[in-house]
DNA-directed RNA polymerase specialized sigma subunit, sigma24 family (Jiangella alkaliphila), 167 residues
Amino acid sequence: MCLPAREARVIIGGMESTNRAAGLLARAADGDVAAFGEFYDLCAPAVYGLCLDVVGDASVAQGVVQEVFVELWERCGETVASGRPPLTAATEIARTRAVSQLVPADAAMAPEQAYRHGRTYREIAGLLGVAPESVPAMLEHALSHVAGESGPAHDGRSATMSGSPLG
């Protein structure tokens, strides 16, 4: 579930909290570590909630939240200069990073769906929530990773789509 920025602002207390977050991040951009700590305390619950909704695992969500706030610390000057509300920036980064946590798991699932279950690209795309044209690349990536771990295929061919029942 993606948490729109306007809903995220409501979670942390409306316009007053949005203005407070902006002021804290501006102070952090000037090197005020304590202000960034307050910014974290104010915004982290909404960011964590978004991450948990996306990844469905508390420990993974906590890791994503840490990455989000490290990035915000490193780029707080750019975020302030952009004029975007800081929580909007935080939730956009969080959503992107949380979704990226799901992609490797989905990519790893693609070969099993193709080869073990005989699913088509379109069926795999539907299961994974991706565009059908992205499935061949997911399969190729997963198979090249397996080939790299186990060495070349027994018949001398590389692990590519040439032997695919879907290709």
